[in-house]
Amino acid sequence: MEKVLLIEDDLDMQSLIIDYLGNYDFEVHAYDKPKVALEVLQHSSEQYAVIVLDLMLPQIDGFDVCKKIREFSFVPIIISSARGELSDKILCYECGADDYLAKPYEPRELVLRINAILRRTSSDVLKVGDFEIDAAKREVKVEGYSIELTQVEYDLLDLLVKNRGKVLSREVLSNGVNGIEYHSNDRAIDMHISNLRYKIGDTPKAPKYIKSVWGIGYKFIG
């Protein structure tokens, strides 16, 4: 079941979307306060397939929410708004949105837009910054050059990249990677991260891709 993050302060509209998308096997996590939604998106372990974002929100304008999301996430964003001016639509795309749906609309149209985005993003090749990660072949390229990784190194990189901008503890990394057992007093994760950094041309003193977070773990910043 694909998960949808809905940021919408109209509670009637929110309820309608939750019920309708539920009929099409989408699990909707809805928030009416954008600051809370941003906190959840950045720090939760939930993996969302798409974000449905209203523009007219309390606390933070939807344009700014969209830009903030793009600072740490590549999850596709569908703007859902009553603001239908061409200039608003253009600005949405400039802020990093993937689609724009003007209110009022039939809920069925939202389902079609979500499915269209899912088809476009269903490729096994994940492209993030300098990296191309081919899940089917378990191959990694950096700046177009293939690099040889062990299974553990590949899994670590894949987990970090998919959680770009989030700090992942050593325990979380261990639990998400086959072949590593977590012990609070050992440095197995640190050893594998060190080997991974060497292969992708990164350094702990001047990190370009993987940043150490003292006392916690690591996060991908590339």
Please give the structural blueprint.
Layout: E1 2-7, H1 11-22, E2 26-31, H2 34-43, E3 50-54, H3 62-70, E4 77-81, H4 86-94, E5 99-102, H5 107-120, E6 125-128, E7 131-134, E8 139-142, E9 145-147, H6 151-162, E10 168-169, H7 170-175, H8 188-200, E11 210-213, E12 217-220
Helix pairs in contact: 2-3, 6-8
Structure characterization notes:
- The structure is a single chain.
- The strands form three sheets. A five-stranded parallel sheet has the order 2-1-3-4-5, sandwiched between helices. The protein has a four-stranded antiparallel sheet with strand order 6-7-8-9, with helices on one face.
- It is an alpha/beta fold and 222 residues long.
- It has eight helices and twelve strands.
- The protein has two domains: 2-120, Response regulator (Rossmann fold, 3-Layer(aba) Sandwich); 125-220, Winged helix-like DNA-binding domain superfamily/Winged helix DNA-binding domain (Arc Repressor Mutant, subunit A, Orthogonal Bundle).
- Strand 7 (131-134) and strand 8 form a beta hairpin.
- It is 38% helix and 23% strand.
- It starts with a strand and ends with a strand.
- The relative contact order is 0.10.
